[in-house]
Amino acid sequence: MKVNRRDFIKKMSAGAAGLAVSNSIMSMPAKSYNRIIGANDRIHVAIAGLGRRLSAFYEPIAMKSANVELVYLCDVMESQRERALSSFSRHIDYKPKLENNIRKVLDDKKVDVLINATPDHWHTPGSVMAMKSGKHVYVEKPCSHNMFENELLVAAAKKYNKVVQMGNQQRSSPHTIEIINEIHNGVIGTPYKAVAFYVNERGEVPLQKKAPAPAGLDWELFQGPAPRRDYTIETWDYNWHWYGWDYGTAETGNNATHELDIARWALQVNFPQRVDVEAAKRHFINDGWEMYDTMDATFRFANNKIIKWDGKSRSGYDTYGRGGRGTIIYGSEGTVYVDRSLYTLHDRNGKLVKESKASSNEAGTALGGGGDMTTGHVINFFEAVRGKEKLTAPIDDASISMAMVHYSNLAYRIGKGFDIDENCGKMYDRDAMKLWGRDYEPGWEPTL
Known about the structure:
With about 450 residues, the protein is α/β, with parallel strands linked by helices. It is about 30% helix and about 20% strand. The chain is built from 13 helices and 16 strands. The chain has helices at about 5-15, 15-20, 60, 80-90, 100-105, 120-130, 145-160, 175-185, 220-225, 250-265, 370-385, 395-415, 430-435, and strands at about 1-5, 45-50, 70-75, 95-100, 115, 135-140, 165, 190-200, 275-280, 295-300, 305-310, 325-330, 335-340, 340-345, 350-360, 420. The strands form 2 sheets. The chain has a 10-stranded mixed sheet with strand order 1-15-14-13-12-8-11-10-9-16. The longest helix is centred in the last third of the chain and has 20 residues, at about 395-415. The relative contact order is 0.19. The model is unreliable at about 1-35 (pLDDT under 50).
């Protein structure tokens, strides 16, 4: 069965996806949201962070049926702002304002919604600032930099009664919703294990060397909540992902968030009881990459359920014969494979029972990305702000998938696995709990 692009957007606009996942863990009813606008009124949007994810937002903002106005394009790099304005001019017939400082954007009462596509260390602080200013938030993955922020973000959404959706866009994929619902209805019996994987061919990165900040970059504001340090070459343009823990959350935060979320959704599990990790830097040993580039993580849950993460950032070997990313769900009576473009259903003997392909153009491992899933996910968010739909990835549920990312990173950093309180997510390990939060630049600590 194919789902074409037109049908995809139609389904999303009609709220089909929101209804289909109404039974997802901790989903909140739309009527509980504080609706600052009417059901049919225009939503005024600001985007903060104009890097590689920018193209993902052209379509959902430009669609007439979305009924939104882009008010601000905000970024700490001048060239990014100018490029974004030029790019958006091909999709909209008006000019949004350009702004360097996110605080000025959030002070504007006209803005209803912040799309937060900044680097990882800005995701929770910027989102909390936005909610304090009365804005609803679409925050890209990873929604938090550490476990302290993970809890803070959920608490802020509840305190300020705001709609907050994480950018785990496969939650809004019709073919994924379809097969997850079938799994929950018993199509493969009792699901007991999921293997989530990601494969990429990232190359060598430069060693960090002190250098003047690039022309047009507000380095002070880029650092924002992070402790201050001198600029090093190529930091701001993507390599901040790999240059230690000041800004990024490694490949697990950068990509595992997506597939771990699908695995947890399929198995209907919350916090794990234990995490164990084998991870190391295996490639280009002497380059500037400062964390693992290869990880094998195992999460154990109640009722003998298990999720495994297989992440290879710099080895392109197609381990599972399915390309760059996907999730395999094993059940007592069959197996499902699902990724961004299709799913396959096999019986217990391995016979193909069903295959469903979607004509989605969502990016897989290419930098940047965007496509039908992101468009549907953003439209779902807009409609939830209006009170017309339920979120497909409400932050209180998405944050549990995010916690799995943090657990795996913490296990790598302390060099051992640990047990977890499955009820609240706290870790039964003193070394791990020492890394529950992070150091912030004085005056930049995120608070409710």
